[in-house]
Design brief:
Number of domains of chain A: 1
Largest interface: A-B, 20 and 23 residues
Structural class of chain B: alpha/beta
Number of domains of chain B: 2
Distance between the termini of chain A: 5 Å
Shape of chain A: globular
Strand content of chain B: 5-15%
Number of helices of chain A: 4
CATH architecture of the largest domain in chain B: 3-Layer(aba) Sandwich
Order of helices and strands of chain B: HEHEHEHEHEHEEHEHHEHH
Largest sheet of chain A: 5 strands, parallel
Oligomer: heterodimer
Number of strands of chain A: 8
CATH topology of the largest domain in chain B: Rossmann fold
Structural class of chain A: alpha/beta
Largest sheet of chain B: 5 strands, parallel
Order of helices and strands of chain A: EHEHEEHEEEHE
CATH class of chain A: Alpha Beta
Strand order of the largest sheet of chain B: 7-6-5-8-9
Number of helices of chain B: 11
Strand order of the largest sheet of chain A: 3-2-4-5-6
Shape of chain B: globular
Distance between the termini of chain B: 9 Å
CATH class of the largest domain in chain B: Alpha Beta
Helix content of chain A: 25-40%
C-alpha cells in the first residue's frame, strides 16, 4: 500500500479561493447565493468558502449544511449511520441559487441524495455543485460546476481529504 | 440496535444516540415536506393486544413519515380473539415479511419472548408490556425534559444533576419503571411520590428516593414533575379511599403548581384525568409539556425505527438483545 500526497495546505487554499471567484463569476455577483455544505468535510469547506465569497462579492452570503443520510440509497447495505445536522440559513432556499459543497465527488450518489433532500426543503432557482476533488467514476449523470482539482484515480484507490478543523492536518492523499 | 425491549439495559451512550437522532428527526418535521424516503420498502407491523390509540397512532405517524408501510393489527376482532397463540400470530407476520414489529401486550415480557423466540427475524419494539416497561414513552419524556432545559443546545447532553419527581400510581406504571431506569442512566436524580399502597413492595433495588408527601417533594424544588395517570381500570382494590382524597393529597392543583419553582416543568403521558391527578390549571399552564410530549413522541419513535431498520441487519441473534 502506498500513499501519495496530491494537495498541500497552500494548494487547498488556492483551490478554494479560485472556486469562490468562479461561484461569483457564474452567478454574476453574490445576489441570491446560498452555500450548503454536505457533512462532514463539505460543511468545513462551505464555512471557508462562505467568508471568501462574501469578501470578494462585497455582500454576506449565507452558509448552511445539508445532511443526506436519510436520503441515501445504500443505507441497508451499511451499518446504521447516525444522521448529521441540517441547518438551512434563515432566508430559506426558495428562489435562491444553492451551491452544494462536498469534499470528494465520486459515484455521484451523495449528490443525488442531496438533490432529493433539497426538494423536500424548498424550490431553489438553481442548484450548483462545488467539490474540492473530482475523482471520476460517476455512476449517475451528475457533474460538478466548480472543481478544486481533477484527480484521476483507480476505483479501488482511496482519496482522503484531511482538513485542519477536523483532522488537525491539511492535505489530500491518495492510497493504493 | 436490533430490538428496543426496555430502558433498563440501555446504556447512557445508546440512550443519547436515540435522543440525538430524534433531534434530527424533529428538525425534519419542521420542513415543508415532512416525509423522508429513508425506510421505503420496509414494513412495520403495529401488533396491539391492548387498546392504545395514542401510542399506536404515534408509531404509525413515525413509520409513515419515514415512508415505511404500516400494518395495524389489533387483537380485538382478530384471530387472536379466536384463540390464536402469540407464536402463530408472530409467524404469520414473519410470513408477510414484517421488518419491525411494534408490540403492546398485557403480559410483562411478551416483547422479549417475541424477540428471543426465533419465531421472527424482525426487529421488536416494546410499546408497553404489562407493568414492565414502555421504553419509547420514557425516551420521549427524557427528550422533552432535555429540550425544555437546553433548547437548541440539547444534542449530546445528558440530564446529570436534573431532579425529576414522578407522582402517582407507580405500582402499575410501566411508564414510571422505564423512566426510572432511563433517567438514572442519563444522570438524573429521581424521586417517586405515591401513597404507600401504590409503591411496589420492594423498590430498594431502584435508583430512586421515595416520598409519600407531595407537598414535601414539591418544596424540594424539582426541575420536572411527572404526573402519572391514575388508571381507573386497574384500581380493582382499595388503593386509596376515594378519588377525591387521592386528588387532594396527590393531585397537582393550582396551589401546588404555584409552589413549584418558576422554571420547572410538568409532564403527563396522557390521556389525562383532569381533576384527578392533574387540575385544568396545571394541564393548560405554559409549564405543561403535554402537547410537546405528543410531538416529540413521533420524533423519538422515528429515531427508534430508523436505528432499528435503516442499517444492515446484524445476523447475530443473541448478544445484541436489549
Amino acid at each position: 500500500m502506498s500513499t501519495r500526497t496530491v494537495m498541500h495546505d497552500a494548494d487547498i487554499a488556492r483551490a478554494l479561493t479560485r472556486i469562490s471567484h468562479e461561484i461569483l463569476e457564474s452567478n454574476k455577483g453574490p445576489e441570491g447565493l446560498v452555500l450548503l455544505g454536505i457533512p462532514t468535510r463539505g460543511v468545513t469547506l462551505a464555512n471557508r468558502i462562505g467568508p471568501l465569497v462574501s469578501e470578494f462579492g462585497g455582500a454576506p452570503v449565507p452558509v448552511g449544511s445539508l445532511d443526506v443520510t436519510m436520503y441515501r440509497d445504500d443505507l441497508h447495505r451499511n451499518p446504521t449511520r447516525a444522521p448529521r445536522r441540517t441547518e438551512i440559513p434563515a432566508g430559506g432556499i426558495d428562489g435562491k441559487v444553492v451551491v452544494l459543497i462536498d469534499d470528494v465527488l465520486f459515484s455521484g450518489r451523495s449528490i443525488r441524495a442531496a438533490l432529493d433532500a433539497l426538494q423536500d426543503i424548498g424550490r431553489p432557482a438553481a442548484v450548483r455543485l462545488a467539490t474540492l476533488i473530482d475523482r471520476g467514476h460517476r455512476e449517475l449523470p451528475i457533474r460538478p460546476d466548480f472543481v478544486g482539482k481533477n484527480l484521476p484515480s483507480a476505483r479501488d484507490e482511496r482519496v482522503n481529504v484531511r482538513l485542519a478543523e477536523i483532522d488537525g492536518v491539511e492535505e489530500v492523499t491518495i492510497e493504493s | 440496535m436490533r430490538h428496543l425491549l426496555d430502558t433498563q439495559h440501555l446504556s447512557r451512550g445508546e440512550a443519547l444516540e436515540i435522543l440525538d437522532v430524534a433531534e434530527d428527526m424533529a428538525d425534519t418535521q419542521r420542513r415543508e415536506v415532512k416525509k423522508l424516503p429513508t425506510l421505503r420498502g420496509k414494513t412495520v407491523v403495529n401488533l396491539f393486544f391492548e387498546d392504545s390509540t395514542r401510542t399506536r397512532i404515534s408509531f404509525e405517524a413515525a413509520a409513515k413519515r419515514l415512508s415505511a408501510d404500516v400494518i395495524n393489527f389489533s387483537a380485538k376482532g382478530s384471530s387472536v380473539s379466536k384463540g390464536e397463540s402469540l407464536q402463530d400470530t408472530a409467524q404469520t407476520l414473519q410470513a408477510m415479511g414484517a421488518d419491525a414489529v411494534v408490540i403492546r401486550h398485557g403480559a410483562s415480557g411478551a416483547p422479549r419472548t417475541l424477540a428471543t423466540s426465533g419465531w421472527i427475524t424482525a426487529g421488536v419494539v416494546n410499546a408497553g408490556d404489562g407493568t414492565h416497561e414502555h421504553p419509547t414513552q420514557a425516551l420521549l419524556d427524557a427528550f422533552t425534559i432535555r429540550k425544555r432545559l437546553f433548547g437548541d443546545d440539547s444534542r449530546g447532553r445528558d440530564l446529570s444533576g436534573i431532579r425529576v419527581t414522578i407522582v402517582g400510581d407507580v405500582l402499575h406504571s410501566r411508564v414510571a419503571r422505564s423512566n426510572v431506569w432511563l433517567l438514572h442512566a442519563l444522570g438524573a436524580h429521581v424521586t417517586l411520590v405515591a401513597p404507600p399502597t401504590l409503591v411496589p413492595q420492594d423498590v430498594s433495588g431502584w435508583p430512586v428516593e421515595v416520598d409519600y408527601d407531595l407537598d414535601h417533594a414539591i418544596a424540594a424544588g424539582p426541575d420536572a414533575l411527572m404526573m402519572l395517570r391514575i388508571q381507573l381500570e386497574r384500581m380493582n382494590a382499595a388503593y386509596f379511599p376515594t378519588e377525591r382524597e387521592y386528588s387532594r393529597r396527590y393531585g397537582l392543583d393550582a396551589r401546588r403548581l404555584a409552589a413549584l419553582p418558576t422554571d420547572s416543568i410538568v409532564l403527563h403521558p396522557g390521556p389525562m384525568n383532569r381533576g384527578l391527578e392533574i387540575s385544568a390549571e396545571a394541564a393548560d399552564s405554559p409549564r405543561s409539556t403535554v402537547l410537546e410530549q405528543v410531538t416529540n413522541g413521533v420524533s423519538v419513535r422515528m429515531a427508534v425505527l430508523y436505528l432499528l431498520l435503516a442499517g444492515e441487519r446484524p445476523h447475530t441473534e443473541k448478544e445484541d438483545l436489549r
